[in-house]
């Protein structure tokens, strides 16, 4: 990935609806090389998709919780089972397997506290091998981004 690729990806991260003409103008290349670069970045798996960024609160999901999960056993089959089951829950936006004081960290997005309680009691607690779930409610989201810092901005 060269500097032009980095700038191309950075522009698309900021606005995935930019046209080939707009990208061409911004990067100082004709449309054909931009198109070829973009297709290569997609084929190589660097660009994995395009999506709309949605305001979760305006969509009715105003309650964000980070849930740490500790398992009873760390046998490979139990880890795989947890990972498979957790991907089925629409409320779980992100799931990380961690090293440290707990095993998994979940980012859960729901409507309110009642919906979170139902998620914990009716879904999470029914999974095998759960020892402990601790919940941390988000009071305020200070920064959230999916934009990778591909181009260094040293002017700030």
Secondary structure layout:
Layout: H1 3-14, H2 20-27, H3 31-43, E1 63-71, H4 76-86, E2 92-97, E3 104-110, H5 113-122, E4 130-137
Antiparallel strand pairs: 1-3, 1-4, 2-3
Describe this structure in words.
The protein has 156 residues and is of the alpha+beta class. It has two domains: 41 residues, Winged helix-like DNA-binding domain superfamily/Winged helix DNA-binding domain (Arc Repressor Mutant, subunit A, Orthogonal Bundle), CATH 1.10.10; 75 residues, Lrp/AsnC effector binding domain/regulation of amino acid metabolism (RAM) domain (Alpha-Beta Plaits). Helix content is 35%, strand content 19%. The protein contains five helices and four strands; from the N terminus they run αααβαββαβ. Strands 2-3-1-4 form a four-stranded antiparallel beta sheet.
**Average pLDDT reading:** 94
Structural class: alpha+beta
The percent of residues in helical segments reads: 25-40%
Could you give the order of the helices and strands?
HHHEHEEHE
Annotated CATH homologous superfamily of the largest domain: Lrp/AsnC effector binding domain/regulation of amino acid metabolism (RAM) domain
Q: In whole angstroms, how far apart are the ends? A: 24 Å
Number of DSSP-assigned strands: 4
Question: What name does CATH use for the topology of the largest domain?
Answer: Alpha-Beta Plaits
Give keywords:
156 residues, alpha+beta, Arc Repressor Mutant, subunit A, Alpha-Beta Plaits, 5 helices, 4-stranded antiparallel β-sheet
